[in-house]
Design a protein that fits this description.
The protein has one domain (about 40-370): Phenylalanine Hydroxylase (Orthogonal Bundle), CATH 1.10.800. A hairpin with a 2-residue loop joins β5 and β6 (about 250-255). The chain has 16 helices and nine strands. It starts with about 35 loop residues before the first helix and ends with a helix. The strands form three sheets. A five-stranded mixed sheet has the order 6-5-8-7-9. The protein is of the alpha/beta class. About 45% of the residues are buried. The structure holds cobalt (II) ion.
Length: about 375
């Protein structure tokens, strides 16, 4: 599908419901904490963008910025490290897509045009440069039209550690053992170009996943109408970003949030702390999630096709009618109705998580046990 035969060419009117503050997900607002305009204003290098750089009203940039040598260096550092994490951890569909794109990722920040030359013929998707996290309705509209908005900037503009300072001088690629979750380069809350391109584009090469995300975009509008955007957002969070899959009896990762983080790749697969539960949309839509640390619960699907059929092929109206706004279940909940894959001990969670001495020891053990 090309831009010319997409189903809508302008941002749809989402109706009055969208402007209800109860409907908006706080994390996706424009000017609040973590909001797009706030972060856009503090972007460190190369992002002095003016109005003329935006395509009017669509929250996308006309082109990628020109990246500095240091920015390409940081990409190479991230790429070299995370590429080694993937075999036997990322799912087969991810590895297949990754295999077709990898040559574009080796030499620094890739060009979206080069990626689209492979992605668009495969599944009709394109990636488009976005300045930051963009508002929900515009995000949904892009997805519905098989455009994936990808952050145009790269993390780590204010390096804190020697390895990042070396990468900025062009000393990457080199394999460096990451040593701490608080390293400014390897933990990231906001999606940047490395997360969006490395993490998301390989799965967009898969036909079922490509349809799944498009259907997700289309469903966003209905969720807004029913004032259940937060619940609906949990589906994206627990599948597209943090989803696990069972393949031939072993757990693998398909979620982009996990696959762009070396520590969460290990934590999600090997830690005895989090729960792992079979994914159902009803359960996921009632479940809170963690935005500033690893997940306390991961949801597991049998196949991408099954994920597609359990969500995209269904009308959520009957669920929305029963669902209270907001979340019913804590991130650590286990229910009698859950089909449990592994019951977690939640030791990482209950010691306080990221930055706590016991959490650090927990991760050091995992890294040592699964070092490559
Ligand atoms: Co993402």
């Amino acid at each position: 599908m090309s831009d010319s035969d997409t189903i809508s060419t302008s941002i749809p009117d989402m109706g009055a419901a969208y402007h209800d503050p109860l409907v908006q997900d706080a994390g996706h607002g424009l000017t609040g904490p973590g909001g797009a305009l706030h972060r856009y204003a503090i972007r460190p290098e190369g992002y002095r963008l003016g109005d003329e750089d935006f395509i009017t009203g669509s929250w996308r940039l006309r082109r990628q910025p020109r990246y500095t040598r240091a920015e390409h260096g940081r990409w190479r550092l991230l790429f070299e490290n995370q590429r080694r994490m993937l075999p036997d951890r990322a799912c087969k569909d991810f590895m297949t897509g990754f295999g077709r794109l990898e040559h574009l990722f080796r030499d620094g920040i890739p060009s979206f045009d080069d990626i689209n030359a492979i992605l668009e013929p495969a599944t009709g998707w394109t990636v488009v440069p976005a300045p930051e996290l963009i508002p929900d309705n515009i995000f949904f509209w892009h997805l519905e039209n098989r455009r994936f908005p990808a952050g145009a900037f790269i993390r780590g503009g204010q390096p804190q550690t020697p390895k990042v300072i070396r990468a900025n001088k062009g000393c990457a690629p080199e394999h460096v053992e990451y040593t701490a979750v608080e390293d400014d380069l390897f933990y990231l809350q906001e999606p940047d170009i490395f997360h969006d391109i490395f993490g998301h584009t390989p799965m967009l090469m898969n036909p079922f996943f490509a349809d799944y995300i498009q259907a997700y975009g289309a469903g966003g509008r209905r969720a807004i109408t029913f004032n259940r955007l937060k619940n609906f957002g949990a589906i994206y969070w627990y599948t597209v970003e943090f989803g696990l899959i069972e393949e031939e009896g072993a757990l693998r990762v398909y979620g982009a949030g996990i696959l762009s983080s070396p520590d969460e790749t290990l934590f999600s697969l090997y830690s005895d702390s989090p729960h792992r539960i079979r994914m159902t949309p009803e359960r996921v839509m009632r479940t809170d999630y963690v935005i500033s640390d690893f997940q306390d619960t991961y949801f597991v699907v049998d196949s991408i096709k099954a994920l597609y059929e359990s969500t995209a092929g269904r009308d959520f109206t009957p669920i929305y009618e029963k669902l209270p706004a907001g979340f019913t279940y804590a991130t650590t909940a286990l229910l009698d109705t859950d089909v449990v894959v592994t019951e977690g001990r939640q030791v990482y969670k209950f010691c306080g998580g990221k930055g706590r001495p016991r959490a650090r020891v927990h991760m050091e053990k995992l890294r040592a046990a699964h070092a490559r």
